[in-house]
C-alpha cells in the first residue's frame, strides 16, 4: 500500500537473523532445514505501461496478463500482453482505489483498498457483474482450487469462499517464528502462496496452511526504472502456468520482468 508505513527495518532485522543462521550452518557443514534462500534470474524484459500503479498481476488462462491498478481517480483493470497490447480496460469509480485481482472460474475479483468493496467481474470481458463487502482493508488476492486468499497489509492471510467472498478462516504469517507484516500482492501456485513484502524488494513463499514462510526471495537485483518516488516500489507477481517462471513488476514501472527463482549465494 502507499500511505501506510511499514517497518522495513523490522523485516531487515528478521532477514539478517535468518541469513546469519544460514551462514552459521554452512560454516560447520551442517544441513539444517529452514527457510530456503533464493534470488531471481532475469529471463527476459518486456515493456509495461508506466502509468499503471500496479496493485494486482495475474496470467489468465489464455496467456494474457490481467492488471489491476490503484490510486483514487486513476484505478482500472485491463488485460495486456508481453508487447503491452492492452484490451478490456475498465475504469473504477472515481472514489475507489483498486487493489489485488484474481480469477476464479468465470469471475475476476478486484479488491479495493479501504472501501470494503470487492468488484465481481466477467472473466472474459472484465465488465462488472456485482459487488460484495468485506471488513478491513484489501491488498493482495489470489485463488486456489476451493478458496480465495486475501492479504490486508498485516501479518494475516484470510481465506474466502469463492462463491460469495465470505470469510472462512485466517492464518498468521510467521518467518522463523516471528510475525511477518506487510504481506502485499499475492500469487497462488499449487498449494503455495508467494507474496511481495510492502516497501521492500523481498518476496516470500508461504505455506498457507501453517502460515510459515518456507522461502525468502531477494529480488533486489531487478532494475527499478520507475520514477524517483517512494511509492514506485516492487509490486506485482504472476506465475506463468506450466513453467518455473514468474512475471514481476512494480508501481509505475516501465518493465515487466520474466524471471526464475534460483538458489542464491
Ligand atoms: Ca498475483
Structure description:
The chain is mainly beta and 265 residues long. The chain has a single domain, classed as 6 Propeller (Neuraminidase). Helices cover 8% and strands 47% of the residues. It has an 8-stranded mixed beta sheet with strand order 16-17-18-19-1-22-21-20, with no helix packed on it. The N terminus is likely disordered. It binds calcium ion. Calcium ion binds next to strand 2, strand 16 and strand 20. Keywords: Signal, Transferase.
CATH superfamily: TolB, C-terminal domain
Number of domains: 1
Reading the helices and strands in chain order gives HEEEEEEEEEEEEEEEEEEEEEE
CATH topological fold name: Neuraminidase
Biggest sheet overview = 8 strands, mixed
Q: Give the overall form.
A: globular
Mean pLDDT: 90
Portion in beta strands: over 45%
CATH class: Mainly Beta
CATH architectural name: 6 Propeller
Number of helices: 1
Secondary structure category: mainly beta
Distance between the termini: 30 Å
Sheet with the most strands: spatial strand order: 16-17-18-19-1-22-21-20
Q: Low-confidence parts, pLDDT < 50 over ≥5 residues?
A: 1-29
Keywords: Signal, Transferase
InterPro entries: QCT, Quino_amine_DH_bsu
GO molecular function, one term: glutaminyl-peptide cyclotransferase activity
Pfam family, one: Glu_cyclase_2
